[in-house]
Here is the input.
Amino acid sequence: MKRPSETINQLVHAICGVLVGKEREIRNVLIGLLARGHVLIEDIPGVGKTLLALAAARAMGVRFRRIQFTSDTLPSDVVGVNVFDPKTSEFEFKEGPIFTEVLLADEINRTTPRTQSALLEAMAEGKVSVDGITRKLPPSFFVLATMNPVERFGSFDLPESQLDRFMLTITLGYPDRKHEREILERDIEHNFAERIEAVTDPEGLAVLQERVREVHIDASVMDYVLDIVHATRFHPQIKLGLSSRGALHLKRAMQALALMEDRDYVIPSDLRRIFVSVALHRVLITGPVEGSVREMKKTILNDVLQSVNGPI
Here is the structure.
């Protein structure tokens, strides 16, 4: 039987075969999935977000669905709807695209708050309710949502309470010259992801997710987590720090990172490596900002890390 880290590294290798030069981002997405969280990608179009989601689903041997959100997307377009069948004189439930293992919620900020809430509630509860009947989503349900940070016209920004439901955030960005040349020479498109052979299956994925929860966290490391979380709440440049849900997401992401590196215990450097990705979309900073808000947040969060002494 393969070690969990071996399976995870095979997943990374398979996805890296089509999304070249983005191993760190791929690992962060897998951390979110293994920790039973969801991931938000804030990036411009055309840098591989759909390719990443599709490749991850194919490598894990699970279903993949995509929702292209627009201003007229309805909650029923996401969760499904009851349709009257005149032959049987009964209503039949037609599942929406949310009934899958990997869901790409493309440009989630393009749709109305009502539709956003339908998806985000399902993310938090793992089930949907239609006409008073509750239906469970697959155990490994995972959302990879995207937002375009450049085009804000006609969009509906997610409030902080909704952003807090995402475990971590990433950006893909443009590839460097070497990897962009490889993309052009190999003519990489979405059909490349369709050719990926499955490394595991839904049952194997569920086992990996259970193993994440079994990773040990020493009391000293747990105190380090609490110190960091509290530091975000009292930093002079932060007006909204990490919530208790954010602290829990940080802990689980650290466990997933440890498992990925073939450890059954968490070390302090796990926190330092994943902290910014977990906290970036959660914190609100004070005062006017010159330049990129995202970069300013990164600077402040790194300052938080430097201000707290961790265990040796």
